[in-house]
Each structure stands twice: as structure tokens, then as C-alpha cells.
Write a structure and sequence with these properties.
The complex is a heterodimer of chains A (114) and B (111).
Chain A (H helix, E strand, L loop, with lengths): L3 E4 L2 E4 L4 E8 L5 E7 L6 E7 L2 E5 L6 E7 L2 E7 L7 E8 L9 E2 L3 E5 L1
Parallel strand pairs in A: 2-11
Antiparallel strand pairs in A: 1-3, 3-8, 4-5, 4-9, 5-6, 7-8, 9-10, 9-11
Chain B lengths: L3 E3 L4 E4 L4 E7 L6 E7 L6 E6 L3 E5 L2 E6 L4 E6 L8 E8 L6 E3 L3 E6 L1
Classes of the chains: A mainly beta (114), B mainly beta (111).
């Protein structure tokens, strides 16, 4: 089973709102990722957690705050977003292996900031 | 700057033909290589991965890797209209699990 689930599927929020995106996997993967994807562009890495610790932050603005409560769950807390933050937010997971390992993506959350 | 380059598209092939998608990468230390398929409005789906030089076949898909030439390709045999999608090449160079994606190429299979 290579399933990563994400909730919600769609989210519309105002610039003063606080919301959270959630991601879950039950494949025993120990690396989890957040990506942002704009239309007709490839996914852009935001954060990587490895063994529940933040290992990569791609200079993401502090209005995005990741959290990894346990090895199966990954959250992305959103606060004071801008309209340009509207995008498809993708969660992925993988095994941890030097040299890389296959990453499996969830279905994504389509975020619209008004 | 680590780069992954894909042919500019779009690519159009007739149904039943072989579609050939190409990708080059700049980092000689790259160790793992992936092809993702993405339908419009959906998330990327992993369809092939390859770690060693040579060919790897899975059904109608063949991934080819040539590390000396820093080149990875995806062949789709007997192309079907359902193969119409954007194909993303992705490369991982190190221990930090960071994928570098190409810009993607849109494939259209004509019935």
C-alpha cells in the first residue's frame, strides 16, 4: 500500500485566518515532506522531516509552520497567508536512505487565499 | 546549482506509438532517478525509479539511465490516450532526500 492521505482536499481562507493542513501515512516511512506546487510548475520543496525531526527548511516564510507529531503524521500550520500562497500543497513520504528513496505523494490540498 | 533539464514540450504521439521522454542532470553525484506522471489537477504519481545504469522495465514503461552521460529517459510503449499527462523527471543527489525536479513535459497521445 503506497497511500498518503491529506485533509482537507480544498481550503479557502482569508489572510487573517489560521488553518492547518494534515497528512498521514501508514507505510512505515520515516521521512515526510511538504511541497508547494503552482500551476504548470514542478513541485517546490518546503520542508523535510526525517525521524520526526526537521531536517530541511527551504527558507520558507514563518507564516508556514510545520509540525511532525509522530512518524505517521505531518501538519502544516498556516497563519496570515498572502494571496500568492494560493497553490496545491502536497505531502509526500519515503524511507530514509543515503542517496535517496522513492517519494510517494498524497492527493494534495488545493489552497485558495482570499 | 543542481539542475534537471527536460525536453521542452509538448510532445504529441499517435496511439500505439512509442513515446520517448528525456532528462539530463547536472550533478554527477546524483544517485537515484524518478519519473512521475501528473494528470491535470491531480498530484504526481510515481511510475518508475532507477538507481543503476542500464534499463529497467515495468509493463509498458522502460526507464534508461546513463550516469556517464548524465542522462535518464522514459520510454512508453504502445502509448494510450490515458497516458496523456505531464511527466516529471526527478533526481536525488545526496543523503538529505531532496528531490530536484525538471520542469516537466506534457505528453498528448492522439487516438
Amino acid at each position: 500500500d503506497t497511500e498518503v492521505t491529506q485533509t482537507p482536499k480544498h481550503l479557502v481562507m482569508g489572510m487573517t485566518n489560521k488553518k492547518s493542513l494534515k497528512c498521514e501515512q501508514h507505510m512505515g516511512h520515516r521521512a515526510m515532506y511538504w511541497y508547494k506546487q503552482k500551476a504548470k510548475k514542478p513541485p517546490e520543496l518546503m520542508f523535510v522531516y526525517s525521524y520526526e525531526k526537521l531536517s530541511i527548511n527551504e527558507s520558507v516564510p514563518s507564516r508556514f509552520s510545520p509540525e511532525c507529531p509522530n512518524s505517521s503524521l505531518l501538519n502544516l500550520h498556516l497563519h496570515a497567508l498572502q494571496p500568492e500562497d494560493s497553490a496545491l500543497y502536497l505531502c509526500a513520504s519515503s524511507q530514509v536512505r543515503a542517496g535517496g528513496h522513492e517519494q510517494y505523494f498524497g492527493p494534495g490540498t488545493r489552497l485558495t487565499v482570499t | 546549482q543542481k539542475e534537471v533539464e527536460q525536453n521542452s514540450g509538448p510532445l504529441s504521439v499517435p496511439e500505439g506509438a512509442i513515446a520517448s521522454l528525456n532528462c539530463t542532470y547536472s550533478d554527477r553525484g546524483s544517485q537515484s532517478f524518478f519519473w512521475y506522471r501528473q494528470y491535470s489537477g491531480k498530484s504526481p504519481e510515481l511510475i518508475m525509479f532507477i538507481y543503476s545504469n542500464g534499463d529497467k522495465e515495468d509493463g509498458r514503461f522502460t526507464a534508461q539511465l546513463n550516469k556517464a552521460s548524465q542522462y535518464v529517459s522514459l520510454l512508453i510503449r504502445d502509448s494510450q490516450p490515458s497516458d496523456s499527462a505531464t511527466y516529471l523527471c526527478a533526481v536525488n543527489a545526496g543523503a538529505n532526500s531532496k528531490l530536484t525536479f525538471g520542469k516537466g513535459i506534457t505528453l498528448s497521445v492522439r487516438p
